[in-house]
Specification:
mainly beta
């Protein structure tokens, strides 16, 4: 009787917490798990609780995190297939929020910055795999300018963004800091053709 009572409590707690487990598979024989997560009930498709996704049939984790009533929440981790972390960041109400860090397959940091309600906020940095700075920008809710650099440290490209999309001028420079190409964007789309700039024209001015 006591065992039955404890089992009943466990089942009720599981239902209250939305712990109906769902698994999908890479193969028809259902030997290799693709996803493992929970829904708020057996009849619902709304995810709630821990989520895991795996690569192919070898069991390496692809990504893991938490859902709250169908929305991603808290810290999420994404992995390269070699097991190293690819991306680490948090969600609030299904939108990236707080610090996010991206990594190369080697484990070296690739870029880092903060989000606010899904938009880049504050300073963002990008790095070559050897740790040298390859880019930087400052954003206010996705609006700002991002600069990219050659391995020698010279400015290579500068791009304007509005609300997270390329909008405005994008300019490319050679290692002698001469403008060699420019274009205009609206919402990530070219608003005019790329313009190559003549070195002769530049020297004449």
């Amino acid at each position: 009787m006591r065992y039955f009572f404890l089992l009943l409590i466990a089942c009720v707690s599981s239902a209250v917490l939305g712990q109906h487990q769902v698994k999908t598979f890479h193969d028809e024989e259902k030997q290799f798990v693709k996803e493992a997560y929970y829904t708020i009930s057996a009849e619902s498709q709304i995810r709630n609780g821990k989520y895991l996704k795996y690569y192919s049939d070898k069991g390496e984790k692809n990504d893991e995190g938490q859902y709250d009533n169908g929305k991603r929440t808290g810290e999420w981790l994404y992995y390269h297939q070699n097991g190293n972390i690819s991306v680490k960041g948090s969600f609030v109400n299904d939108l990236p929020d707080g610090q996010w860090t991206y990594f190369y397959r080697s484990g070296q940091k690739q870029k880092q910055g903060n989000f606010s309600a899904g938009q880049q906020q504050g300073k963002w940095m990008r790095f070559y795999e050897n740790g040298q700075k390859s880019g930087e920008g400052i954003f206010d809710l996705g609006t700002g300018v991002f600069n990219e650099y050659y391995t020698g440290g010279q400015l290579q490209r500068t791009t304007e963004f509005v609300s997270g999309k390329k909008s405005g001028k994008s300019k490319v420079y050679n290692t002698q800091n001469q403008l060699i190409q420019e274009a205009s964007y609206i919402d990530n789309e070219l608003s005019d053709s790329l313009k190559a700039v003549s070195y002769t024209h530049l020297r004449a001015h």
